[in-house]
Amino acid sequence: MGTSKEAFRFVDLFAGLGGFHVALDELDGRGVFAAEREPKLKALYKVNFGIDAWGDLNELSGDEIIALNVPDHHVLTAGFPCQPFSKAGDQLGFEDTDQGNLFFKVHDVLRVKRPQHFILENVPNILKHDGGRTRITIIRLLEELGYSVKVEHFSPHDFGIPQVRDRAYFVGSLQGLDHFEWPAKHKDPTEIQWVLRHEGQSTRAIPEQTLRAIDMWGDFLRRSPASLKLPSFPIWAMEFGATYPYLDETPAGVWVRRPVRGLRRMGFKGSFGQSLDCSFDEQLTRIPSHANRLGDLNFPQWKRTFIRQNREFYQANRHWIDPWIARWSPQSFPSSFQKMEWNAQGEDRDIDNFVLQVRASGLRVKRPTTSPSLIAFTQTQVPILGANLAGERRYMTPAECAELQCLGGIQLPASDIDAYKALGNAVNARVVKAIAERLLHGLIRPTSDLEPLRVTG
């Protein structure tokens, strides 16, 4: 295999935007096969790398088909689907018939083609999934093929890139891993300013309701006394003034016990101190969404703790919180805007100094040292840059998110939302390169240590 112009040949399974390809190309590898079932990304892979990617790996349905269609190669890479193992999903693992069993397609290609090395990537929860049995199963199956296997997790910020995004990496070799060492993690400071491109502003306007919610929580921060340490727990404004039961009983328990009156005439109050002397349907709307699910007869300890902490915080600070509620009527906002996560303890309380993200768990406020973890964003979850960071409040652009994945040199999907989603599913090319150059020491010329990322525009 190979020519004088290439150090090694590789295949790129579940290729996505081609993060593995970018990394291994920089080490003088040559991609000889890729697989990507999403049609737009499959077409884009041809544009970026000149390879007409295979579609659905399930169509490599037997050893003969694999042997015929997958070329010989030195290195196999695969970021196999993570949703079945993610904390954010149903965690069905291998029992997910649509995606969870796709690891076994990777196993089939390794078994038939016998490349010298592999690098696999997934969410870190795969190491703990099913009580650790998923990790044990993966390693056992790979070792049964004759591979030595090691596992570690890394985040881009370990390599001087301003993004915290932990991912698990499995490496394997038929030649043993006695001489393999994981790359060193660095704890040097990072700044999100390194990836901002001021000449290419976001073309999508931030919705007015989102801007108003940012203003509302910005005013909350301004009103908070400087001597007050803001909570490290999520701030749930809907618990301000609430007294409904949550310890020995829940609203759902009362509705079962008192099916006609429910919480009426019991002296309890709902969100923001609203009266519960009303109809059952109205009671449902006046209990926070995290506490009004029918059949939810007991709350988990973490939820009880957050409810208690927020009620105590309100009682100790209502002298400035009540005027804030009167000014902004947070109860008129959707539930996700009624919550805030303050991840910038000790910083000046100007909300425009920070990176913001709207999540189901609330408006997250992060220091400008790193971006929120790039995930397969919905339209509302794209990070928002405060005005003091970017000149005006705006979404991070796909080009800036590509820099966070060290994929700034490739063409992205034309649709911003398609680009954000693909970047959220991509592997970080810098992290992969750091791992690969140590794994493939016998195939490539050694390179110097990676310099910290510095992107200016």
From TrEMBL:
Catalytic-site annotation from UniProt: C82
Database matches in SUPFAM superfamilies: S-adenosyl-L-methionine-dependent methyltransferases (SSF53335)
PROSITE patterns (alphabetical): SAM_MT_C5
Molecular function GO labels: DNA (cytosine-5-)-methyltransferase activity
InterPro entries in alphabetical order: C5-MTase, C5_MeTfrase, SAM-dependent_MTases_sf
EC number: 2.1.1.37
Reactions accelerated catalytically: a 2'-deoxycytidine in DNA + S-adenosyl-L-methionine = a 5-methyl-2'-deoxycytidine in DNA + S-adenosyl-L-homocysteine + H(+)
Alphabetic keyword roster: Methyltransferase, Restriction system, S-adenosyl-L-methionine, Transferase
GO BP annotation list: DNA restriction-modification system; methylation
NCBIfam families in the cross-refs: dcm
Protein family (similarity comment): Belongs to the class I-like SAM-binding methyltransferase superfamily. C5-methyltransferase family.
Protein name: DNA (cytosine-5-)-methyltransferase
Naturally occurring in which organism (per UniProt): Paracoccus litorisediminis
Taxonomic lineage: Bacteria, Pseudomonadati, Pseudomonadota, Alphaproteobacteria, Rhodobacterales
Gene of this entry: dcm
